[in-house]
Amino acid sequence: MSKVLFVMTGVDYWTLADGTKHPTGYWAEEVVAPYKAIKAAGHEIVVATPDGVVPTVDQGSLAPEVNGGADGAAEIAQTLADAAELRSPIRLEDVDLAEYDAVYYPGGHGPMEDLSVNADSGALLNAALASGKPLGVVCHAPAALLATAIDGDSPFVGYQVTGFTNAEEAQAGFADKAKWLLQDRLVELGVDFREGEPWAPHIEVDRNLYTGQNPASSAPLAAAIVKALG
C-alpha cells in the first residue's frame, strides 16, 4: 500500500481584478475522481492544507449540470461526505515528503488565491519533482507552480505542462474578470505549456510530473498515477 498526499487550497474565495471575492474552493470532481481511484487501488490518502484548515468545496462544482446529471451530483456529494480525510487535514507546513509515495494537487479557483504564493507549497513541489515520486497537478492547481521559483528559475522550467487554458477561462466567464490568467503565467514561468481542446480530457506526463488540463482530466490523471504506483 502506498501513501498519497493531497495538497488542497485552504481558501473559499478568489480575489478578482476589481477586488471582489468570488466564492470558490476546490473543484469536487478533481478530488472525487482521484480519491476513488486511489482508494480503490488500496492506497492511503492524507490531506494537507495551509494551516490545516478544512478545505471548502466550490458549490458550483456540486451542480448536476457539471456532474452528468442529478445522479452524478449525488454520487459526488456522497463521496465527499464520506471522505473522512477531508475533515481532518494536516498542516501543509508540517508535511514530511519522505512519508509519501506520491503527491496530488486538485484544482478549483482556490489555488489561484493561496497556493500560487505559498512558499511551503513551492518548496514541497520542488522536493517532489526532485524525488522522482509521482507528482500530479490538475486544472487550476498548476497555479501552485508559480511559487516554485524560490531562488531564481523554477525547476519546472522546460517541463511539458498543461492546465486550465485561457480559452476555458473565457468560456467559463472569468477571463475578463481575473487579475491574471493561469496559462499566461505558466508560460511566463518557463514551462512548455500544452493546450488541448476546451473541456476535453487532456493530460501531460513529463518524467514524474503528471498534469491535467481541466476537471475531465482528473480521472485519467489519477489512473496514470495509480499505474505509476503499481
How would you describe this structure to a colleague?
The protein is α/β, with parallel strands linked by helices. Helices cover 30% and strands 17% of the residues. It contains 7 helices and 11 strands. It has a 7-stranded mixed β-sheet with strand order 5-4-1-6-7-11-10, with helices on both faces. Strand 10 (203-206) and strand 11 form a beta hairpin. The relative contact order is 0.17. Belongs to the peptidase C56 family. HSP31-like subfamily.
Helix and strand topology:
Blueprint: E1 3-7, E2 13-15, E3 21-23, H1 28-40, E4 44-49, H2 70-82, E5 90-91, E6 102-105, H3 110-113, H4 119-131, E7 135-138, E8 160-161, H5 166-171, H6 182-189, E9 192-193, E10 203-206, E11 209-212, H7 218-229
Helix pairs in contact: 1-2, 1-7
Protein name: Type 1 glutamine amidotransferase domain-containing protein
Family: Belongs to the peptidase C56 family. HSP31-like subfamily.
Organism: Nocardia vinacea
Rg calc: 16 Å
Proportion of strand residues: 15-25%
Order of helices and strands: EEEHEHEEHHEEHHEEEH
Reported for the largest beta sheet, the result is: 7 strands, mixed
Anisotropy-based shape:
globular
Low-confidence stretches: none
Helical element count?
Answer: 7
Distance between the termini: 9 Å
How is the largest sheet built, in terms of strand order?
5-4-1-6-7-11-10
